[in-house]
Amino acid sequence: MKKLLLTTLVAFLFPCLLWSQDIIFRNDGKDIESLIIEVGTENIKYKKFNNPNGPVYIMKKSEIFMIRYENGTKDLLHQERQEKKQNQEVEKNEREEEKDYEEIAEGVREVINANKEPAQPSFVQSPQNSNMCVRGMNDATFLYRGKNSGAGWTAITALVTGPVFGLIPAISCASTPPKRHNLGITNYNLISNPAYFNCYQDEAHRKKRNKVWGHYVLGALTWGLFVFIF
Prior knowledge:
The protein is an alpha+beta fold.
């Protein structure tokens, strides 16, 4: 009868004794029966369960797989480390993406700044000179006929020798502004006005470029048609 009572008492008290201690499960597979004193950010402090009056031990959390406390709750430290690592990787990727976006934005700004029209020369900035500039551009639109522009020779060269050799006169003629005596200005009193003359010449040069390249395309297409047919 006494043995039965003793066995029943042990069976009743054993779970209480088992769960009255904290157990540290290390990464190397070893278990430590302990009394946890403090859980910090990087370390934990504990005493050995069989020596509660003994020294306080310190262990790095990176060495611990899991802690099971006396009340049955658990701290899965390996899971916390994985989540922390994942969060760090996410933050790293976000920083890299933000850096890439900044580089792209900077590149776009550089392209926009590079494509901005240059500031008007000082002789165009006043209202009077601005009006003279507009008049010069309008006059060039109607008066400049592309005399001696080289467009005809460009078309003949592209027709006879092909598009590759035709590029030589096309580039040379298109990049050269019209000479003064070929501009077709009828009012010579306006030539002395820098705003009028420069804007007239710029517009005439634009028309010359269009004419030269138009003749080049015409000659190159004609050459290609002859090659295709014959």
